[in-house]
# Entry
Amino acid sequence: MSSLFVSSELIDLIEKVENGERLDYDAGVRLMNSQDILALGYMANIVRERKNGDQTYFQVKRHFNYANVYETTMVYGDIKSTEQRINHLLKLRTAQDQTGKFLSFIPLPYYPKDSLLDGTMGIGTTTGIEDLKVLAISRILLDNFDHIKALWTMLGLKLTQVSLEFGVDDLEGNVVEEQISHTGESETGQVITKRAMIHMIQKAGRDAVERDTLYRILKTD
Amino acid sequence: MQTETLRIIEKRLAGERLSIADGIKLFQDADLLSLGQGADLVREQMHPKKVVTFVIDRNINYTNVCSCQCKFCAFYCKPGDPNGYILSQAELHAKIEETIDVGGTQLLIQGGLHPDLDLEYFENLLRDIKAHYSIHIHSFSPPEIWDLANKSKLPIKEVIFRLKNAGLDSIPGGGAEILDDRVRHLISPNKINWQQWMDVMTTAHKLGMKTTATMMFGHVETFEERILHIVRVRDAQDQTKGFTAFIPWSFAPTNTLLGGEGSTGVEYLRTLSVARLMLDNVPNIQASWVTQGAKMAQVALRFGANDFGSTMLEENVVRAAGVQTRVPLQEIIRCIEDAGYQAVQRNTHYELLKVYRKEVVG
# Structure
């Protein structure tokens, strides 16, 4: 597969990632300024599969827990510059080297109060490419974090599924055991059933793993 | 496994045509990123300037009454249903004027197969529009044209010729679904077969009209049938060179008889990439923001698509199937520029009209 990327501007970084080398600040800036999202995905996928294979985690629960101490985050899509974003990620990486306490990292797209969600593209929301870039670059740079999470309620289910090839191994968002009321197409809803989540993960060629808060496996599908 | 699909992708990058077996193998085994990278490189070969085009137009449905009643459709009304309508001339004119006011260059007029509307109705419709407005009419579809041929007992060629003379400029690729009769029999038994669809298009091409080709996937079809569809378009294109674009999109199950799971984001990007790799003779591949949403449509620009489709002031057919997306012009520009391309407005024939800048549109 890497022969397809030989003409990429990021080929030297691709080789580093393939060799398991840590990327520095300058490399991070190059990644964030690059438009070559497929090369970014390729690198992120190498790291993802190295750490988690095909396993894709989700929890059956209702609310995103902002107070989860095992998780850290970065808001993007606001006014932060490339340099600020990379600095933020590398600070987290250093902290993780020292304490090893974080289990997961979840980038959060910035949404102004009244904007529309999911595919409707209100003014000021993040684009699909930006979402995938931030997820992929987080996966590449945060080589000491086990899990990179995507929040499906903000990305939409279609893009979330695609993100499983761009570094994501963990999905956050409301998952219920079964549908209580008929809400129609889950793309525009804010709830997904466990069955639909498993189906989506499997259709991406990954294994669906139901977990608890501490990443203990409850059930594999 | 990976080396075989890699070999196929590299074969295409070297300029060789892919076989049906190659295409099936890609669907079965190729991973998403390899497909995307292959498709992206082919797109770059075919469109070296970093431009993504779009058209400003309006979809106008002159009627929702339909005798075809396809199982995947959430839009139709049966003849006699009180919710059925036919647009009045005043309503049509108002919609056209709104379109021209926002800089629209194209009208995409389509409707169900209404039992009472004959060839004369359509000729009058077209003549009336051309008499009052200067705008490109990219309208109807092979099922509508065959319906007129049956009603008027005229050959296809004459129906198209008359429509062209009355003002029809080009024909959209609707009604293609999957160009395979096993599938068509299951999902739309009342519809024309695949060869009838192709007949309309090749006949139109020979009369000097351009058309597009579409594909609606993600229901009962197999990988092989998707590839057959693509290859059938490719074969016809070898003969007539009349297809300007290929537009794949996924079936949306809500409110339809067919129902089911629908198709996923990954499947959409894979299909788009395979289409770009297989169709070496069709210049443009359109992303479908209508069925995928703007986030995915933008990502599609790196998976083989070089066109963002239409700004579509109005869209009723897919919306009936519960897909809710509206993408204003400035968001289309932002999507295209954020993906690293220049946004250029085009006409129906993919001629470049005007460069749009994010800051200027505002």
User: Anything to note?
Assistant: The longest strand of chain A covers residues 71-76. Strands of chain A lie at 55-58, 71-76, 104-109, 147-151, 170-172, 175-176, 192-193, 207-211, 217-220. Confidence is low (pLDDT under 50) at residues 115-123, 183-188 of chain A. Chain A has eight helices and nine strands.
